[in-house]
Design brief:
Length: 324
């Protein structure tokens, strides 16, 4: 971490924003080892391998999530080269990532970044998406509960030292964000919000840390269609990871309650091969402005509401005085 990060964070115990820094190892890029101490409650938080650990009072759900992902780490052959290829992936893993990659590139290319934005990549995991914002010049922070290399924040060193890019990494939970209010221009979330059993809670936290008219960008969130029956079953659930597949109205209602005005975006990748094929054809043949305003506007709700799929969404923080 760099010292500048101290201007953004608050103590997760008492919410004070003044800290004493003790650095024991510093390289040319950052503080690699050390700690910070809250000047109010005296709580100490470690800095290890450049990652600031602000995860306080871990819950059973978080511990199960950490354990589950760690157990799944060896399910594939991880390598620095594979991490560098994300989200497109390579070799035998490409087929598992293609939907996520298509949605990411599609939405990211339409964020109209100037490089002046301050971005929180919430649930950044391996930090592959965080480094895209870094390459655009934004001030960026990746946050996750996972730390180990190849599944969590320690993967960041691959991008920092092999791609010559830099971003901050903070270990914490989305249910209690350790940041000052009204800091971020964008909070970006890729396939993470559904890991919460109460999505209104993290959405309210996101609302607080966004600047007025700040943007929340959701991509690759799974949506359960009304016609879908039975419970979801996948390796993540079997490993004890908290996976939830919500209906579209659940997302939209909770976003409104939190104070956001949301707008569904076009989605390309997803589990429904027919819907994915149709969407790709629309995207290639019809100009974007007509897709969103005419054709896609009703179809996106019908597809997701009835059949499910993938939620790509942009939401704007609305002034609380204007929220009814």
């Amino acid at each position: 971490m760099k010292k500048k990060l101290l201007d953004f964070i608050v103590c997760p115990n008492c919410f004070n924003n003044s800290f004493k820094l003790e650095a024991s190892e510093i390289n040319k890029l950052e503080i690699r080892e050390g700690l910070i101490q809250c000047k109010k409650c005296s709580n100490k938080y470690d800095i290890e391998e450049g990652i600031l650990d602000l995860l306080l009072n871990s819950t059973k759900v978080i511990e199960n999530e950490q354990k589950g992902w760690n157990n799944l780490k060896n399910a594939i052959t991880n390598s620095d080269e594979l991490m560098l290829s994300l989200p497109d992936a390579r070799g035998p893993y490409r087929k598992y990532w293609i939907g996520q990659a298509e949605n990411f590139h599609y939405i990211f290319s339409r964020l109209d970044l100037t490089g002046e934005e301050t971005v929180l990549d919430l649930g950044s995991g391996r930090c592959w998406s965080t480094r895209y914002f870094s390459k655009k010049g934004c001030y960026r922070i990746g946050l996750d509960i996972l730390i180990p290399k190849y599944i969590g924040l320690r993967t960041s060193d691959i991008y920092i030292y092999k791609e010559n890019t830099y971003f901050e990494r903070v270990c914490s939970t989305m249910g209690k964000l350790p940041f000052k209010d009204a800091l971020f221009d964008i909070v970006f979330i890729a396939a993470t919000l559904h890991h919460s059993s109460r999505i209104l809670k993290p959405l309210k936290e996101i609302y607080k840390v966004l600047k007025p008219d700040g943007r929340l960008v959701l991509i690759n969130e799974p949506v359960r269609g009304l016609l879908r029956r039975g419970k979801a079953c996948n390796p993540e659930i079997e490993a004890g990871i908290n996976e939830n597949i919500y209906l579209l109205p659940k997302y939209l209602m909770e976003l409104k309650k939190a104070g956001f005005k949301s707008d569904l975006q076009f989605w390309l990748g997803g589990n429904n091969s027919l819907a994915r094929f149709i969407n790709k054809i629309f995207c290639r043949l019809i100009p974007q402005k007509y897709i969103n305003k005419l054709l896609w506007k009703p179809l996106k709700y019908i597809q997701l509401f009835l059949f499910g799929g993938v939620l790509n969404l942009k939401a704007v923080k609305v002034d609380s005085k204007r929220v009814t």
